[in-house]
Amino acid sequence: MKPVQQKEKIIDFLIAYPDVVLFPQEKARIVCNIKKELRRKHGHRPNIVEIIFPLLFLVVALLLANISGLFPVITGVPLLDQVDTVDFLRRALLYVFIAGALTTPLLLTILPLNKGRKW
Amino acid sequence: MQPDEAEKCWPALQNGDNQAVEIFVNEYYPGLLNFLLRLGCNPGDAEDVIQEAFIKAIRGLHRYQHQEHLRAWLFKICHNCWRDYCKKASRRREVAHEPGTLRAFKTDNTESQFMAREQAHRVQTALNRLPPKQRVVIILRYYHGFSIKEIAHIARCPAGTVKSRLNGALNSLRSFMEESDWE
To answer: Does A28 touch chain B (CB under 8 A)?
Structure first.
Protein backbone atom coordinates (compact mmCIF):
# COMPACT_ATOMS: atom_id res chain seq x y z
CA MET A 1 0.00 0.00 0.00
CA LYS A 2 1.29 3.47 -0.90
CA PRO A 3 2.21 5.85 1.95
CA VAL A 4 -0.54 8.28 0.88
CA GLN A 5 -3.16 5.53 1.02
CA GLN A 6 -1.82 4.41 4.39
CA LYS A 7 -2.09 7.94 5.70
CA GLU A 8 -5.66 8.22 4.44
CA LYS A 9 -6.52 4.93 6.10
CA ILE A 10 -5.13 6.14 9.41
CA ILE A 11 -7.04 9.41 9.11
CA ASP A 12 -10.24 7.51 8.31
CA PHE A 13 -9.62 5.38 11.37
CA LEU A 14 -9.18 8.50 13.52
CA ILE A 15 -12.21 10.28 12.11
CA ALA A 16 -14.35 7.29 13.03
CA TYR A 17 -14.19 8.58 16.60
CA PRO A 18 -17.29 10.81 16.67
CA ASP A 19 -17.80 13.96 18.71
CA VAL A 20 -19.69 13.59 21.96
CA VAL A 21 -23.19 14.97 22.32
CA LEU A 22 -23.61 17.98 24.55
CA PHE A 23 -26.83 18.34 26.46
CA PRO A 24 -28.36 21.83 26.78
CA GLN A 25 -28.49 21.47 30.57
CA GLU A 26 -24.77 20.75 30.62
CA LYS A 27 -23.99 23.85 28.59
CA ALA A 28 -26.29 25.96 30.75
CA ARG A 29 -24.61 24.68 33.91
CA ILE A 30 -21.15 25.49 32.58
CA VAL A 31 -22.23 28.98 31.47
CA CYS A 32 -23.80 29.59 34.86
CA ASN A 33 -20.68 28.38 36.73
CA ILE A 34 -18.40 30.56 34.63
CA LYS A 35 -20.57 33.65 35.13
CA LYS A 36 -20.72 32.99 38.85
CA GLU A 37 -16.95 32.52 39.02
CA LEU A 38 -16.33 35.67 37.00
CA ARG A 39 -18.61 37.69 39.30
CA ARG A 40 -17.04 36.21 42.42
CA LYS A 41 -13.48 36.99 41.46
CA HIS A 42 -14.19 40.12 39.48
CA GLY A 43 -13.44 42.47 42.39
CA HIS A 44 -9.79 43.12 43.14
CA ARG A 45 -8.58 40.91 45.95
CA PRO A 46 -5.35 42.22 47.51
CA ASN A 47 -2.57 39.68 47.50
CA ILE A 48 -0.05 39.17 50.26
CA VAL A 49 2.55 41.48 48.69
CA GLU A 50 0.12 44.36 48.64
CA ILE A 51 -0.44 43.90 52.37
CA ILE A 52 3.16 43.23 53.38
CA PHE A 53 4.68 46.02 51.30
CA PRO A 54 3.10 49.03 53.10
CA LEU A 55 3.70 47.41 56.49
CA LEU A 56 7.35 46.69 55.79
CA PHE A 57 7.76 50.10 54.22
CA LEU A 58 6.33 51.79 57.32
CA VAL A 59 8.50 49.75 59.68
CA VAL A 60 11.71 50.55 57.77
CA ALA A 61 10.82 54.26 57.48
CA LEU A 62 10.09 54.52 61.21
CA LEU A 63 13.22 52.58 62.08
CA LEU A 64 15.38 54.88 59.95
CA ALA A 65 13.73 57.94 61.42
CA ASN A 66 14.21 56.62 64.91
CA ILE A 67 17.88 55.76 64.34
CA SER A 68 18.63 59.28 63.16
CA GLY A 69 16.63 60.83 65.99
CA LEU A 70 14.08 62.47 63.69
CA PHE A 71 11.09 60.73 65.19
CA PRO A 72 11.46 59.17 68.63
CA VAL A 73 9.14 56.20 68.23
CA ILE A 74 10.72 54.03 70.88
CA THR A 75 11.34 56.65 73.55
CA GLY A 76 8.05 58.37 72.91
CA VAL A 77 9.54 61.79 73.73
CA PRO A 78 7.87 64.51 71.61
CA LEU A 79 10.92 66.09 70.04
CA LEU A 80 9.14 67.19 66.87
CA ASP A 81 8.75 70.75 68.10
CA GLN A 82 12.50 71.05 68.40
CA VAL A 83 13.16 70.03 64.77
CA ASP A 84 13.23 72.66 62.06
CA THR A 85 10.17 72.11 59.76
CA VAL A 86 12.04 72.41 56.45
CA ASP A 87 14.80 70.13 57.62
CA PHE A 88 12.18 67.68 58.94
CA LEU A 89 10.37 67.51 55.59
CA ARG A 90 13.58 67.12 53.65
CA ARG A 91 14.75 64.30 55.87
CA ALA A 92 11.34 62.68 55.95
CA LEU A 93 11.29 62.56 52.13
CA LEU A 94 14.76 61.11 52.11
CA TYR A 95 13.72 58.39 54.55
CA VAL A 96 10.66 57.55 52.47
CA PHE A 97 12.91 57.18 49.42
CA ILE A 98 15.48 55.08 51.29
CA ALA A 99 12.77 52.90 52.82
CA GLY A 100 11.30 52.31 49.34
CA ALA A 101 14.71 51.50 47.93
CA LEU A 102 15.29 48.98 50.71
CA THR A 103 11.92 47.28 50.78
CA THR A 104 11.08 47.06 47.07
CA PRO A 105 14.01 44.85 45.95
CA LEU A 106 13.55 42.77 49.05
CA LEU A 107 9.94 42.06 48.20
CA LEU A 108 10.55 41.54 44.51
CA THR A 109 13.41 39.10 44.93
CA ILE A 110 13.28 37.37 48.28
CA LEU A 111 9.62 36.49 48.61
CA PRO A 112 8.94 33.18 46.81
CA LEU A 113 5.51 34.51 45.83
CA ASN A 114 7.09 36.79 43.26
CA LYS A 115 9.27 34.26 41.49
CA GLY A 116 8.63 34.42 37.78
CA ARG A 117 6.03 37.14 38.09
CA LYS A 118 6.04 39.95 35.52
CA TRP A 119 5.99 43.45 37.00
CA MET B 1 -17.75 30.79 15.76
CA GLN B 2 -17.43 32.64 12.47
CA PRO B 3 -14.82 35.45 12.39
CA ASP B 4 -17.57 38.09 12.04
CA GLU B 5 -19.39 36.80 15.06
CA ALA B 6 -16.15 36.64 17.05
CA GLU B 7 -15.41 40.24 16.13
CA LYS B 8 -18.90 41.31 17.23
CA CYS B 9 -18.54 39.41 20.46
CA TRP B 10 -15.07 40.71 21.25
CA PRO B 11 -15.74 44.18 22.75
CA ALA B 12 -18.73 42.90 24.74
CA LEU B 13 -16.64 40.05 26.11
CA GLN B 14 -13.89 42.42 27.16
CA ASN B 15 -16.51 44.35 29.14
CA GLY B 16 -17.66 41.10 30.79
CA ASP B 17 -21.11 41.17 29.14
CA ASN B 18 -23.17 38.15 30.24
CA GLN B 19 -24.73 37.55 26.83
CA ALA B 20 -21.32 37.61 25.15
CA VAL B 21 -19.93 35.19 27.75
CA GLU B 22 -22.81 32.83 26.98
CA ILE B 23 -22.22 33.00 23.20
CA PHE B 24 -18.49 32.54 23.68
CA VAL B 25 -18.85 29.51 25.98
CA ASN B 26 -21.59 27.87 23.89
CA GLU B 27 -19.50 28.23 20.77
CA TYR B 28 -16.20 26.87 22.03
CA TYR B 29 -17.21 24.48 24.79
CA PRO B 30 -17.97 21.46 22.54
CA GLY B 31 -14.61 21.68 20.77
CA LEU B 32 -12.66 21.98 24.00
CA LEU B 33 -14.59 19.12 25.61
CA ASN B 34 -13.92 16.79 22.69
CA PHE B 35 -10.26 17.83 22.70
CA LEU B 36 -9.85 16.93 26.37
CA LEU B 37 -11.83 13.70 26.15
CA ARG B 38 -9.66 12.50 23.27
CA LEU B 39 -6.56 13.46 25.24
CA GLY B 40 -7.72 10.93 27.83
CA CYS B 41 -9.36 13.23 30.35
CA ASN B 42 -12.47 11.99 32.15
CA PRO B 43 -15.66 14.06 31.67
CA GLY B 44 -15.75 15.45 35.20
CA ASP B 45 -12.16 16.67 35.10
CA ALA B 46 -12.69 18.02 31.58
CA GLU B 47 -15.51 20.28 32.82
CA ASP B 48 -13.28 21.67 35.58
CA VAL B 49 -10.37 22.26 33.20
CA ILE B 50 -12.58 23.95 30.59
CA GLN B 51 -14.19 26.17 33.21
CA GLU B 52 -10.76 27.25 34.41
CA ALA B 53 -9.64 27.86 30.81
CA PHE B 54 -12.68 30.03 30.02
CA ILE B 55 -12.21 32.10 33.15
CA LYS B 56 -8.53 32.65 32.35
CA ALA B 57 -9.35 33.49 28.74
CA ILE B 58 -12.12 35.98 29.56
CA ARG B 59 -9.95 37.69 32.18
CA GLY B 60 -6.99 37.82 29.81
CA LEU B 61 -8.97 39.05 26.78
CA HIS B 62 -7.91 42.67 27.24
CA ARG B 63 -4.27 41.61 26.79
CA TYR B 64 -4.98 39.61 23.63
CA GLN B 65 -5.02 41.51 20.35
CA HIS B 66 -5.06 38.83 17.63
CA GLN B 67 -8.74 37.99 17.58
CA GLU B 68 -8.43 36.12 14.28
CA HIS B 69 -6.58 33.39 16.22
CA LEU B 70 -9.02 33.37 19.11
CA ARG B 71 -9.81 29.67 18.75
CA ALA B 72 -6.13 28.65 18.74
CA TRP B 73 -5.49 30.92 21.72
CA LEU B 74 -8.37 29.35 23.65
CA PHE B 75 -7.09 25.84 22.88
CA LYS B 76 -3.65 26.89 24.07
CA ILE B 77 -5.06 28.08 27.40
CA CYS B 78 -7.08 24.89 27.72
CA HIS B 79 -4.02 22.76 26.94
CA ASN B 80 -1.98 24.63 29.57
CA CYS B 81 -4.76 24.21 32.13
CA TRP B 82 -4.91 20.50 31.32
CA ARG B 83 -1.15 20.13 31.81
CA ASP B 84 -1.33 21.94 35.16
CA TYR B 85 -4.25 19.75 36.15
CA CYS B 86 -2.29 16.61 35.27
CA LYS B 87 0.68 17.78 37.32
CA LYS B 88 -1.56 18.39 40.33
CA ALA B 89 -3.36 15.09 39.80
CA SER B 90 -0.09 13.15 39.59
CA ARG B 91 1.01 14.80 42.82
CA ARG B 92 -2.22 13.61 44.41
CA ARG B 93 -1.66 10.17 42.80
CA GLU B 94 -5.00 10.24 41.04
CA VAL B 95 -5.65 7.88 38.15
CA ALA B 96 -7.59 9.03 35.09
CA HIS B 97 -10.81 7.17 34.33
CA GLU B 98 -11.68 5.43 31.10
CA PRO B 99 -12.29 8.33 28.71
CA GLY B 100 -15.61 9.05 27.15
CA THR B 101 -17.37 6.02 28.58
CA LEU B 102 -20.26 7.93 30.09
CA ARG B 103 -20.92 10.12 27.06
CA ALA B 104 -23.33 9.84 24.16
CA PHE B 105 -21.95 10.32 20.67
CA LYS B 106 -23.29 12.30 17.73
CA THR B 107 -25.04 9.60 15.73
CA ASP B 108 -28.36 9.04 13.97
CA ASN B 109 -29.90 6.26 16.03
CA THR B 110 -29.40 3.90 18.97
CA GLU B 111 -27.81 1.18 16.88
CA SER B 112 -25.19 3.50 15.49
CA GLN B 113 -24.72 4.84 19.01
CA PHE B 114 -23.44 1.41 20.02
CA MET B 115 -21.17 1.25 16.95
CA ALA B 116 -19.87 4.74 17.66
CA ARG B 117 -19.06 3.77 21.22
CA GLU B 118 -17.14 0.71 20.03
CA GLN B 119 -15.27 2.73 17.43
CA ALA B 120 -14.48 5.49 19.90
CA HIS B 121 -13.11 2.93 22.32
CA ARG B 122 -10.84 1.47 19.62
CA VAL B 123 -9.51 4.83 18.50
CA GLN B 124 -9.06 6.00 22.08
CA THR B 125 -7.04 2.86 22.84
CA ALA B 126 -4.78 3.69 19.90
CA LEU B 127 -4.50 7.34 20.93
CA ASN B 128 -3.69 6.39 24.52
CA ARG B 129 -0.68 4.45 23.28
CA LEU B 130 0.84 7.57 21.80
CA PRO B 131 3.14 9.77 23.89
CA PRO B 132 1.15 12.80 25.20
CA LYS B 133 2.97 15.29 22.96
CA GLN B 134 2.19 13.28 19.83
CA ARG B 135 -1.38 12.74 20.97
CA VAL B 136 -1.92 16.49 21.30
CA VAL B 137 -0.69 17.29 17.79
CA ILE B 138 -2.62 14.51 16.14
CA ILE B 139 -5.87 15.52 17.86
CA LEU B 140 -5.42 19.19 17.02
CA ARG B 141 -4.57 18.41 13.40
CA TYR B 142 -7.14 15.78 12.46
CA TYR B 143 -10.07 16.46 14.77
CA HIS B 144 -9.92 20.24 15.04
CA GLY B 145 -8.28 21.12 11.74
CA PHE B 146 -5.58 23.45 13.05
CA SER B 147 -2.68 24.39 10.80
CA ILE B 148 0.90 23.40 11.64
CA LYS B 149 1.61 27.00 12.67
CA GLU B 150 -1.39 27.11 14.99
CA ILE B 151 -0.46 23.76 16.54
CA ALA B 152 3.06 25.07 17.10
CA HIS B 153 1.51 28.05 18.92
CA ILE B 154 -0.75 25.83 21.04
CA ALA B 155 1.91 23.25 21.90
CA ARG B 156 4.60 25.94 22.34
CA CYS B 157 7.13 24.31 20.02
CA PRO B 158 8.60 25.02 16.56
CA ALA B 159 6.64 24.08 13.42
CA GLY B 160 9.33 21.52 12.51
CA THR B 161 8.79 19.74 15.82
CA VAL B 162 5.05 19.62 15.16
CA LYS B 163 5.66 17.99 11.77
CA SER B 164 8.04 15.48 13.30
CA ARG B 165 5.55 14.64 16.07
CA LEU B 166 2.76 14.24 13.52
CA ASN B 167 4.90 11.91 11.47
CA GLY B 168 5.88 9.90 14.54
CA ALA B 169 2.25 9.68 15.65
CA LEU B 170 1.07 8.50 12.23
CA ASN B 171 3.80 5.83 12.16
CA SER B 172 2.85 4.63 15.63
CA LEU B 173 -0.82 4.50 14.65
CA ARG B 174 0.02 2.57 11.51
CA SER B 175 2.01 0.00 13.49
CA PHE B 176 -0.81 -0.24 16.00
CA MET B 177 -3.35 -0.82 13.25
CA GLU B 178 -1.15 -3.47 11.62
CA GLU B 179 -0.62 -5.21 14.97
CA SER B 180 -4.32 -5.24 15.67
CA ASP B 181 -5.12 -6.19 12.06
CA TRP B 182 -7.79 -3.52 11.73
CA GLU B 183 -9.35 -2.70 8.42
So the answer is: no
